[in-house]
Amino acid sequence: MSSPVLSFGHDALTVEICQDPAGAPYLAAMAFDGNKLQMQPGQPLVEILTVEEGRYHPSERLGLTTVGRRLRHVAHEVQQTAGGVAARLEMADAESGVEVELRLSSPAGSAALNAVATVTNAGVRRQTLLAVTTLSTRIGNAAAESFDVASGANDWLGENRWRIEPLRAAAPDLALAVHGGQESRSGLVARSKGTWSTGRDLPFGVLANDEDGFAVAWQVEHNGGWRWEVTEGPGGVALGLSGPTDTDHQWQQILNPGETFTTVPVTIALGPDLQGAVANMTRYRRSARRPHPDNLKLHVVYNDYMNTLMGDPTTDRLLPLIDGAAEAGAEVFCIDAGWYDDGGDWWDSVGEWSPSARRFPGGLGAVIDRIRERGMIPGLWLEPEVIGVRSPMAAMLPDAAYLSRDGVRVREAGRYHLDLSHPAAIRHVNAVVDRLVEEFGIGFFKIDYNINPGPGTDRDAHSAGEGLLRHNRAHLGWLESVLDRHPDLIIENCGSGAMRMDFALLSRLQLQSTSDQQDPLKYPPIAAAAPMLVLPEQAGNWAYPNEAMDEESIAFNMATGILGRLYLSGHLNRLSEAQRYVVHEAMDVHKGLRAVIAGSTPSWPLGLPHWEDPAVALALDSGNESYVTVWRRPGAPELLDLRFPALAGKAVSVQTVFPTGLTEWKTEWNPAAGLLHVHSASPAPSARTFRLTVER
User: Domain containing 685 — which CATH number?
Assistant: First the structure.
C-alpha cells in the first residue's frame, strides 16, 4: 500500500502525493469543488530519459524510464504564500546519482497546479538527458473509454482549430490485459516543430470524463520545443508534459557531476467539465501574468496592415488613416511593416530599423507627432530577431550572434536569425528598442516573427535543441528587461498571426494577434476558440470594416472583436455616416465591457467551434452577467439553441447590446433547460452580442 508523503492545497484545490513502495512518488489524489480524483501508483511524477539508463520497457513514450521509476522521496516542504500555496519535493535515484527537486504551486481561488523540476547530477559519472517530463500523472482510475479529449491545431490563417473526440478514437483498444497488462508503447502525442511553438499543434489540451464529472486541462509554458502525450496502461490513462526532447527537437543535455538542468513550466487545471477546467486555467493565467497597466486598461489598437496598407505605408497614406482611427476612438495607432524600407522590397533587407526617408519625406517623426496630436499612443511593427541577408547589419554582427549549424549561419527565406543568448545580439535588439522609444516616444510595439529556422543552433551546445532552449530562455529574459526599462510600453505578441501563441510569451506580454486571416467570414471560429489558449483580454481579434460593406457586414466584422481585444484596421476614413455609426457603437460597447472581459471566463454555448461551422458562439461569464456573441455564417439556421447550464433554473433577462439599430433577433429564455432560443430574421452573414442578466 502506498504511503502519503505530501499533502497541500487551499479551498479550491488539494493535492496528495504518495510514495509507491515498488516505485517512485506519484500524484495520488486531487480534490476540487467536492470532487476527488484518485490515481493508482505506477506513474512517477517526473520521468527522466538518459542515454546511460534508457527505458525499462520498449516504447516511444516520455514514460517508462529507468531513472524515473527508481526515484525515491528524500524530503519535502510546504509554504503558504500570499497568493496561494507552494510545495517542494526532493527525490533521488541512488544508482545513477540523479536528484530531482519538483516545485509545485497553486494560486488561491483556482483549481490549478503549476510545476517545474530541476535535475541535478549528484553522481560521479556523466549523465546525458534525452527527455525530462516536468510533470507526469495518471488521470483518475477510469479507462480510456470514459474520456473525451480536446486538442488543437494551428496554421497560418487557420488558427485555433479545436477538435473533441473520444480518447478511444485517438488511442485504440490494444487489449493490453491479454498481453500481460503491459503499457502501450505510444499514444496521443502533440509537439512543436522548430521555433514556431504553436505552428502546428497547440500546447494545451483537455481530458473530460462526463460519467465521473471531472475534466483535466493542461498547458506547456514554453516558447520553443515542447511535447505532451496521453497514454494508456493497466493503471489507466496517463498524461506526460515536457519541454524539448531528443526524439522531437534534437535536444540533449549533458550533465557532468554537480551540474543541473531545469525544465520548462507546465500547469494542469481541474473542473467539473471542459469549460470548468478552462475557467480554472483562465484564472491561473491571470494570476501568473506579469503586472502591467494595460492588463486592465486594454487599449484599443488600430493597425494599418490588415486589408489596408499591407506593409506599404507612406506619410500621405497614413495621415487620413490616423484621423479615421482617432475619430473611431482608437487609443493606439501602430504603423505596421514597411516603415523602414527605402527600396520597395523590405523582406530580406530588414535589420537596421531606421525610418525610410523616401516613404516619409518630412520624417517619420512628423507622422508620429500627428498620431500623438490625435490623442493616440504611437506604435511600430518590429521583427527584431531577424536580420535580412541584404541588410548592412548582416555584416556588422559576428557569426556567433546568429543561430548556426556546423559553424554556418542558418538562412531561412532570405533572413538570418539572431541568437539572443549572445551579448552582441542582445546589444543590437536593445539598441533598436531603446532608440525608437527615446527618439520617437514609441509606446507600442507589434513584435512579429515570420520565419521558422528549424531545431536550433549547435554553437557551444551538445545539440541544436540545447542551443535553441538557451535562445528561447534568453528571449524571455530580453522581453522582461525591455519592460523593466520601459514599464508602460505595450507589446503585442505576433508570429505570422499566432505561430508563437504560448503562455511563456503571453505571461509576459500584453496582447496576442490571433490571426492574419483577412476574410471576415473565416475569422469567427478563430476568435471564438482563442480563449482556449489566450486570456480573453489578450485575444487581439481583428476588425477591418470598409466602405464596400453594408451595415450588417460591418456589424458582423466588428462583433468579432467585441468580446476579446478589439483590434482595428481598415480605411475607416472612407466610411459613410451610417457605416461609422455601427463602428462607433461597437467601440462604445467594447470599451464599456473592458472591465468585464478582464475578469471573465469563457464558455461555448454551441460547443467549441469547428472550422466550417455555419453558426459560432462565444460567451464570457462574469458573475451574475454573461455576454455572448453569435455569428451566423452562410448556411446557418434561423433558430439556434444556446446552452447555459450554469444558469439553468434561474430567471434571466436577455438584452441585445450590439448592434441595436439593425434587424432585431428574437430571444427566449428557457430556465428549465438553461437554453437561450435565438431567432434571426436577418440573412447571414450577421452577428449579435447579447447580455444575459440573472434576475434577483
Answer: 2.60.40.1170
Mean pLDDT over 655-666 rounds to: 97
Asked if 463 and 337 sit in the same domain, the reply is yes
Q: Could you give the CA distance from residue 371 to residue 298 in angstroms, rounded to a whole number?
A: 18
- Using DSSP bridges, classify how beta strands 112-121 and 565-568 pair: parallel, antiparallel or unpaired: unpaired
Residue 547 maps to a domain: no
Distance in angstroms (rounded) separating the CA atoms of residues 414 and 394: 11
Last residue of a domain, one of 457, 478, 513: 513
CA–CA distance, 237 with 136 (Å, rounded to integer): 11
CA 537 centroid distance within chain: 12
- In this structure, what are the phi and psi dihedrals at residue 649, rounded to the nearest 5 degrees? 85, 0
CB atoms within 10 A of CB 354: 14
Range of the domain at 621: 603-694
Domain count, the chain: 3
Strands (E), 112-192: 112-121, 127-138, 148-153, 161-166, 188-191
Candidates 31, 51, 14, 36; CA nearest to 128 is 51
490: in domain: yes
Residues in the chain: 696
Do both 265 and 207 map to the same domain?
Answer: yes
Query: In terms of domains, do 342 and 468 share one?
Result: yes
| Cα 418 from Cα 424, distance rounded (Å) | 9
Are 241 and 359 in a shared domain? no
Terminal CA-to-CA distance of the chain, rounded, Å? 51
Residue 345 is predicted with a pLDDT of 85
Name the nearest CA neighbour of 619 among 636, 637, 638, 606. Answer: 606
Task: Say if residue 365 is exposed, middle or buried (CB neighbours under 10 Å; 0-12, 13-18, 19+).
Answer: middle
Measure the CA–CA gap between 400 and 396, rounded to whole angstroms.
Answer: 12
Residue 267 three-state SS: strand
Cis previous bond, 455, omega within 30 = no
Q: With respect to residue 125, please indicate whether it lies within any of the assigned structural domains.
A: yes
DSSP state of 495: B
pLDDT at residue 469 in the model? 98
pTM for this prediction? 0.98
Residue 585 in any domain: the answer is no
Of 163, 86, 116, residue with least CA distance to 267:
116
Query: Model confidence over 664-694: pLDDT tens digits?
Result: 999 999 999 999 999 998 999 999 999 999 9
370-411 pLDDT per residue, tens: 999 999 999 999 999 999 999 999 999 999 999 999 999 999
- Statement to judge: residues 310 and 283 lie in one domain: no
Helix, strand, coil % in the chain, rounded to nearest 5: 25, 35, 40
DSSP string, 50-109: ETTT-BSS--SSS--BHHHHH-EEEEEEEEEETTEEEEEEEEE-TTT-EEEEEEEEEETT
Say if residue 19 is in the same domain as residue 157: yes
C-alpha dist (Å) from residue 424 to 203, 389, 406, 459, 616? 32, 18, 20, 15, 48
Average pLDDT rounded to a whole number, residues 571-586? 98
